[in-house]
Amino acid sequence: MEEQKVIRSLSALAQEIRLRVFRALVVAGPEGMTPGALGEALDIAPTTLSFHLKELSHAGLIVPTRDGRHLIYRADYAQMNALLGYLTENCCRGASCAEPTAPVCKTC
Amino acid sequence: MEEQKVIRSLSALAQEIRLRVFRALVVAGPEGMTPGALGEALDIAPTTLSFHLKELSHAGLIVPTRDGRHLIYRADYAQMNALLGYLTENCCRGASCAEPTAPVCKTC
DNA sequence: TCCATATTTCAATAATACTTGAATTGTCAA
DNA sequence: TTGACAATTCAAGTATTATTGAAATATGGA
Predict the structure, then answer these.
(1) What are A14-44's pLDDT values in tens digits?
(2) Which residues in chain A have their CB less than 8 angstroms from residue B98's CB?
(3) What is the reported pTM?
(4) Which of A67, A93, B9, B81 gets the most CB atoms within 10 Å of its CB?
(5) What topology is assigned to A3-94 in CATH?
């Protein structure tokens, strides 16, 4: 993953609403959630939610697909794992440190 | 880890200079690096670097100790692992998904 | 077609974060 | 105790990001 994308992803997650939205989608799994459901569950105004969903989408952390008049947002686990991996790359120059294990949530 | 600390940590990492500094310290391992060395390696003005080191310290991602007239900064691996773990908690409600593996870099 | 619902875009304001140079603090060595 | 070096704090200006209400777009059903 390139540095700019990493920064974009971290920025996306570094905000209360977006962090909650992202975690809700991580928990929801492949089923995903609509903005309506997210807004109700987390008590967020539609405009505000839309703004933050766009930020997360733009970072590549979540992906929308249309289903009739609903949109369904889902977490992109590959993207998340790439992000987590970036932060620990070359940890301790490999010296005093086990090879970094693969990032979490392998099967997603 | 509490939400506010997670956000603080993600915000700290969501910035080009701080991300580079943090990764440099992750690579450096237990030896750590001084602001002087960091500033030279990454070509950052002292004032700017100091500001960003404080942000990372305040987030708990790095820890300074004094050694004579130098400070030595080191990455706090436990903190980093707690952060990574937070992002994948309860992934897919455990359903279609392996138990999240422990975060990276176990022995640090 | 026309209306209602789901969601987004726009524009303005409010809040927060980044950079820089000058001044300050702490430590060592002569 | 004075000078030099390492690093930080302060204060100011600039830039980026978040929030809100009003208006717009897209879809499905009467």
Answers:
(1) 999 999 999 999 999 999 999 999 999 999 9
(2) 105-107
(3) 0.90
(4) B9
(5) Arc Repressor Mutant, subunit A (1.10.10)
Q: Residue ranges of the domains in chain B?
A: 3-94
CB count, 10 Å around CB of A99?
A: 11
Task: Provide the residue type at A11 as one letter.
Answer: S
Q: Considering just the CA atoms, what is the radius of gyration of chain A in Å?
A: 15
Q: Which nucleotide is nearest to B46 (CA to C1')?
A: D7
Contact present, A80 and B91 (Cβ < 8 Å): no
Q: Is A108 within 8 Å of B90 when comparing Cβ atoms?
A: no
Nearest-by-CA chain A residue for B26: A91
Which residue reads 């392998």 in tokens? Answer: A106
* Separation between Cα atoms, residue A22 and residue B53, nearest integer Å: 28
With contacts defined as CB-CB under 8 Å, which chain A residues touch B89?
23, 26-27
Outline where A1-108 has alpha helix (H): 3-13, 16-28, 35-42, 46-58, 77-88
